[in-house]
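If you are new to this repository, start here. Below is one unmodified record pulled from the training split, so you can see the exact layout before writing a loader.
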Amino acid sequence: MSSGTIAPPATSLPRTRIEAHSGRRRLLWRNVTAYATLSVGSVLMIIPFLWMLSTSLKDDRQAYVFPPIWIPSPVAWNNYLDTWQALPFNLFFLNSAFVSLVLTVAQLATCSLGAFAFARLRFPGRERLFVLYLATLMIPFQVIMIPLFVLVKEFGWIDSYWGLTIPLIFSPYGTFLLRQFFKTIPLELEDAAKIDGCSWFRIYWNIMLPLSKPAMATLGIFVFMWSWNNFLWPLLIVSSLEMKTLPLGLAYFLGQYTIYWNLLMVGATIALVPVLVIFFFAQRYFIEGITLTGLKG
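And here is the target side for that same chain:
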């Protein structure tokens, strides 16, 4: 017998090629199925937006035509001017922008401070207190809105910016989101800062916040979108026309016996623009923040 190596069977090489080819085909079909599913989902999600845009350019007659038409003829560009002049939409827009910006900045401040405390400070009962605070997410807003309204009334904040903002500047969800991100930051950075003589606030301000831009951007987008579209709380607090926000302004087009669909869709299109602009500029941080905040419990 020869002492050399034994050659592999002649059938092993073709079998390997067949298996590799079969693996590539399975991967190709998985990719095709995934992309087809995502494409169908994307089309289904964009159809309501396209319908809103189409209806905003229809006149009163075309808005009620059945079967509906997608491309209006003629295009009623004057709907945008009529909607803007029918009500003080510039005032509604400014009120919504002010309230949304104030709530976004305030929640980023309160949630980041609370998250830093729950993630880094060590004190008795920390975990139990965090669980108790997080449990408030299970309480529907409809349960607390009447006591909250009574409290705001006692402070004299009805029909004011104070009433629209102060009761909503705290968020258990935002605290949880940032706490999850803070726990992923290495403890060595905190230890090095302590050796250099940094206080807890300096660690929070100079280390945690600069490293938490993705999570902060994610929370900022969530808060801005929620406050921009918030309808129920402003409906309870605001009574004068000058203090109404955009969602309340859009409700004027819902009459008792008729709905001005074309003007309503114009207002909805205008209200959508700021959210799209903010998401466009912050989408990189948003996607990164969504990915990173779920890494560590």
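Two things worth knowing about this chain: The chain is about 70% helix and 0% strand. The chain has a mean pLDDT of 85.
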